[in-house]
Amino acid sequence: MSNIHIQGPTTMGEVVMKTTVGDIESESSAKESPKTCRNFIQLCMEGYWNDTIFHRIIKGFITQSGDATGRGENGKIYGGPFKDDYRTRLCSCGRGLIAMANAEKDDNTFQFFFTLGSTSELQSKHTIFCKVAGETIYNMLELEEALVDKVNLILLYPPRLLKSIILNNPFSNIIPRIIVQESEEVKDSSKTKAAAVRYFNLLSFGEEAEEDKEESVILNKKFRDKGKLAHDHLTDPKLSSQPAVETPELVNKKRKEDRSSD
């Protein structure tokens, strides 16, 4: 089987993401998406994503991560959301791509996702800035095998991004910020427990579940923020009411509604 799974522009930045499913090597297209790649490299350098869960997994589509604090704090290196940075040479044509998750146009911060299959419906909606390198794509694909309680829609043991190691930094002038880390006590406590994570409705992909809200609050307190879904904490109302990434089902539904209104 060939190791080539995606073709694209010449890459510059290289990062190894240490995860609970193995190493995932990434190559960033710094020339194509400079602002987004700088955001990625700096957050890796600062250790912002250390011990962060993959809080959303849709088999054959995407797996999402990035909200390290569970409250959307400290991860905005530009002081707020930054503009989309996509180029026509980078397309959502297969698995093994890394792109920014957002709620709307020009609303990028720190959440990102891996593509687990073809995601052509996301083209020109999300900035693609990296691709998974070599055979580590098979480790990435292991992310979609996470156990899900299909009755309660809960990720039982969400995979984690443990830390990132920068092998090649195309931005020599990055100065890491001082980020207030969570106490070691909270981190140690979260590692010893099986994190039960609320798994949002796959069709709405980003809207909070209407039922069992009280149960979710209890679970969130129990697992001390680390086991919470990002959208349970973010203060930005856009992210709790709008999908960060639209599923194919939602895209088709919108198309039908547009046709019926014509």
UniProtKB/TrEMBL annotation:
Q: Got a GO cellular component term for this one?
A: catalytic step 2 spliceosome
Main location per the UniProt record: nucleus
The cross-references to SUPFAM superfamilies, in alphabetical order and at most eight, read: Cyclophilin-like
Q: Where in the cell is it found?
A: Nucleus
Query: Where is this chain compositionally biased, Basic and acidic residues type?
Result: 251-262
Q: Which Pfam families match?
A: Pro_isomerase
Q: Which E.C. number(s) belong to this protein?
A: 5.2.1.8
Residues spanning the membrane = none
- Record domain PPIase cyclophilin-type: where: 11-175
Molecular function (GO) terms for this protein are:
peptidyl-prolyl cis-trans isomerase activity
The enzyme's first-digit EC class, named in words, is isomerase
Q: Which reaction does it catalyse?
A: [protein]-peptidylproline (omega=180) = [protein]-peptidylproline (omega=0)
Return the annotated region ranges for Disordered.
Answer: 230-262
- Which branch of life, at top level? Eukaryota
Q: Which PANTHER family match?
A: PEPTIDYL-PROLYL CIS-TRANS ISOMERASE-RELATED (PTHR45625), SPLICEOSOME-ASSOCIATED PROTEIN CWC27 HOMOLOG (PTHR45625:SF6)
Q: What's the stated role of this polypeptide?
A: PPIases accelerate the folding of proteins. It catalyzes the cis-trans isomerization of proline imidic peptide bonds in oligopeptides.
Q: Which family does it belong to?
A: Belongs to the cyclophilin-type PPIase family.
User: What quaternary structure, including any partners, is listed in this protein's UniProt entry?
Assistant: Part of the activated spliceosome B/catalytic step 1 spliceosome, one of the forms of the spliceosome which has a well-formed active site but still cannot catalyze the branching reaction and is composed at least of 52 proteins, the U2, U5 and U6 snRNAs and the pre-mRNA. Recruited during early steps of activated spliceosome B maturation, it is probably one of the first proteins released from this complex as he matures to the spliceosome C complex. Component of the minor spliceosome, which splices U12-type introns.
Q: What is this protein called?
A: Peptidyl-prolyl cis-trans isomerase
Species of provenance: Eufriesea mexicana
